[in-house]
Amino acid sequence: FQVILQNKRKIDKGIVGLHFYQTDPDFIREFIGSNKVKFFPLTSGTFHPKIYLFEDNDGWTLIVGSANFTNAAFSKNYEASLMVTNNDINAKETLDAVVNILKEYKKKAKTFTKADLDRYESISDLQQDMLDSFSDNYGVNNSPSKIEFSKPFYLSKYSTLSWNEF
After folding, report:
1. How far is CA 69 from the centre of its chain?
2. Which residue has the higher pLDDT, 95 or 162?
3. Residues 23-53, buried b or exposed e (16+ Cβ, 10 A)?
4. What would you measure as the largest C-alpha separation in the chain, in angstroms?
5. Which of 28, 34, 86, 138 has the fewest CB atoms within 10 Å, i.e. is most exposed?
6. Taking the CA of residue 165 as centre, how many other CA atoms within 13 Å lie in the half-sphere pointing to its CB?
7. For the segment 45-70, what is each residue's pLDDT rounded down to a tens digit?
8. What is the pTM of this model?
């Protein structure tokens, strides 16, 4: 979180879901009034996409998958993602389709105000006991070990860059 804050000028667009009150209020607080990072309002369905698009002068990398942008997602959770780069077959069509989806999400997302955060925090506090019950492994002490892969996966240059390098 601190690294993101130090590099938030590098974020061009972000849409963050608020369902289940798991988005930390401190994160929301940092982006109150932001036109770059908006929040998807609570709806009858769950806003749950995980789409990351990294761009620079050399091209782009798109990652679509199950991983939230959290430490746990990239360290201990079991996640699956698909990576597409500007060098892949049908890359332009894939990118265009994803960008169109993101545009639709952005239309529904809103800039948060202090009043929005106050309402969110009051409900989030009430939900904390329930959220805590979902942590770790639901009271079972025999979580499986991580899967170890014998061959290295192809990694894009973005996966090895620090935020400062990016």
Report:
1. 4
2. 95
3. beeeebeebeeeeebbbbeeeeeebeeeeeb
4. 51
5. 138
6. 6
7. 888 899 999 999 999 999 999 988 88
8. 0.74
